[in-house]
């Protein structure tokens, strides 16, 4: 015979799982949460990523931001967001005037064709962006059903 706690625990687990999966924010919501009151402007950010990717397991990308990288004017943070991966934020890089240049490079996994967004926050509070649509022919990081 089932105990009351076992039944209640099972019901709680069943009801929480779909709600947690449905709570994943859209890319736009994730950007608003990161940018706060700043409105991202297009420019100053160069996102280099192949627009056609044969295999989404290791996609190279480079982000470069136009900045003097001095104490008076520098990039504080570069972030990468995606449209369709299970998690919206890909990476966050903290920078400062001692970084030398505002440039980061990495490899990412892409679950399917989607838009990738690179944003940079400067020390004056401005936020700059560039979006790139990427076509993936062989997907990666797909969740099992």
Summarize the structure.
The protein is 19% helix and 37% strand.
Derived from helix and strand composition plus strand pairing, the structural class reads alpha+beta
CATH architecture: Sandwich
CATH topology: Immunoglobulin-like
Using only C-alpha atoms, the radius of gyration works out to 19 Å
Share of helix, binned: 10-25%
Major sheet summary line: 6 strands, mixed
Write down the CATH class: Mainly Beta
Tertiary shape: globular
How large is the count of helical segments? 2
Quote the beta fraction: 35-45%
Name of the CATH superfamily: SoxY domain
Terminus-to-terminus distance: 31 Å
Quick one: how many beta strands? 9
Overall pLDDT, averaged?
Answer: 84
Low-confidence segments, ≥5 residues, pLDDT <50?
Answer: 4-21
Q: What letter string, H or E per element, gives the SSE order?
A: HHEEEEEEEEE
Q: Into how many domains do the coordinates divide?
A: 1
